[in-house]
Write a structure and sequence with these properties.
The protein is of the alpha/beta class. It is about 35% helix and about 15% strand. Helix 2 packs across helix 3 and helix 6 crosses helix 7. The relative contact order is 0.16.
């Protein structure tokens, strides 16, 4: 995309949907710092942002199922229905049918009033676009809202930046309402927006691009880590 066409793609003064992936603090004894966590959730919500919990910022890959459940309980209690929140479904390292593994966690997230966001797994590596799109279609079937997640391998070994054929297929899954994009590549994200605008304009691209924080000017929404540090 040339500088001129890039500038023409800007959408100033657009209303942005923002989520903050809230940091999960711990006490010196290694237990979850409940009061501090709930204070961060309250501050973030009061600031007008949605909260994202059990994310990579919240150490989802290091928490056991009971701890992830506790985070859902504390989040629901703090937000008290004032708005929605997002929570990660993390299946990396688990054995079994992927559809069942994802949906088990998604069911729990929905039961607490959250919207599931699907972390990728290394099992996707080497899959054809049609295989990934088919899996997501099965995983999302019957849910009101699900968010996808593409995470660059520089952040986590289970991450994967989807090719354009895969993205095109995912955008057309009705229950999938958006995808968080973390590639650190402005050009890839701009192309995501171009594909989205041509297929399903209401589909949200949630930027996680720490090297291009102005992507909201071009049509991205955002889901960024540590925003709860000082909302």
């Amino acid at each position: 995309m040339s500088p001129a066409s890039r500038n023409a793609a800007r959408k100033p003064k657009r209303k942005t949907t923002g989520y903050a992936a809230c940091l999960l603090p711990f006490e010196t004894d290694g237990s979850i710092a409940r009061d501090s966590f709930q204070a961060a959730i309250a501050l973030t919500t009061d600031a007008g942002l949605g909260c994202a919990v059990n994310m990579d910022t919240g150490y989802a890959n290091h928490l056991d199922p009971s701890e992830r459940t506790l985070i859902l309980e504390l989040t629901r209690e703090t937000i008290a229905g004032r708005r929605d929140f997002v929570s990660g479904a993390f299946v990396e390292g688990l054995e079994g049918d992927l559809v069942s593994l994802y949906r088990t966690q998604m069911d729990e997230i929905v039961s607490y009033g959250g919207t599931p966001i699907l972390f990728q797994t290394t099992r996707f590596h080497g899959w054809k676009p049609s295989e990934i799109v088919d899996l997501y279609s099965q995983v999302c079937e019957g849910y009101d809202a699900v968010i996808g997640f593409e995470l660059g391998a520089m952040f986590a070994p289970n991450g994967l930046i989807f090719d354009e054929e895969t993205i095109t297929g995912l955008i057309q899954i009705p229950a999938l309402k958006g995808i968080k994009h973390s590639s650190l590549d402005r050009g890839i994200e701009l192309r995501r927006l171009e594909i989205r605008d041509g297929i399903r304009p209401e589909f949200k691209i949630f930027t996680g691009n720490d090297l291009a924080i102005d992507m909201t000017e071009y049509g991205s929404d955002y889901l960024l880590g540590l925003a709860a540090f000082c909302p």
